[in-house]
Amino acid sequence: MKIIIATNNQGKVREFKQMLEPLGYEPMSLKDAGIDIEVVEDGETFAENAHIKAQAVYEICHCPVLADDSGLEIDFLGGAPGIYSARYAGEDATDKDRCDKILSELEGVDISLRTARFACALYCIIDDETEYSVLGTFSGFIGTEPRGDNGFGYDPIFMVDEETSVAMLSDEEKNKISHRAEAMKKLAEVLRANV
Asked: pTM (2 decimals)?
């Protein structure tokens, strides 16, 4: 069954393909589906933003849609960057710019106070009567310098232990423990139970 992933972020599309294909879905990005839409994400939570994106795409295609909104929450920064994770260092900022901004804001902060989590809200619309929402989280802490070159976003500064950043994990390792993996596991259980 085709399912449109409501994003043009190729890193996310790749991760969703790896997780959805074993369930019998054929994930397509917005670009693959010929959909060109800019959705205003004005919700106050990851879940609200995921719903807004899914609904906007579903109204165009009327076929199964999966949207996510995810980001980084850092306890020392009061939960920031949160829903503003993608735009935290400005509209045209690179992943490196965003990582550098976080590192500068945490400069001199003890490692014990750098606790953080990635959060991922998934919103899935199958048809007019069937919608699901799930949330996954992945806890760790912010390192003092970027490490590794796999992954995207804040992966190089998000540490899973003293030595290892998410950007040092293989795709396979990341897809077992990430916030997106946890949310996908929850969604897969719901989808299997309601087929």
From this structure: 0.87
Q: Integer distance in angstroms from the first to the last C-alpha of the chain? A: 12
CATH number of the 2-193 domain: 3.90.950.10
Q: How many CB atoms lie within 10 A of CB 191?
A: 20
Q: Which residues are catalytic?
A: 69
Q: Which residues of 116-126 are buried (b: 16+ CB within 10 A; e: fewer)?
A: bbbbbbbbbbb
Residue-level pLDDT at 67 = 96
Of 148, 74, 83, 84, give the one whose Cα is nearest residue 105. 74
Asked whether residue 186 carries a pLDDT value surpassing 80, the answer given is yes
170, 150 Cβ separation under 8 angstroms: yes
Nearest to 86 by CA among 17, 14, 170, 9: 9
Sheet with 26-29, side-by-side order of all strands: 26-29, 2-5, 65-74, 115-127, 130-142, 158-159
State pLDDT tens for residues 145-158.
Answer: 999 999 889 999 99
Contact between 163 and 183 (Cβ < 8 Å): no
Q: Which two tokens stand for residue 53?
A: 């994106």
* Cβ-defined contacts of 104-108 (< 8 Å, 24+): 105/77, 106/74, 106/76, 106/77, 106/142
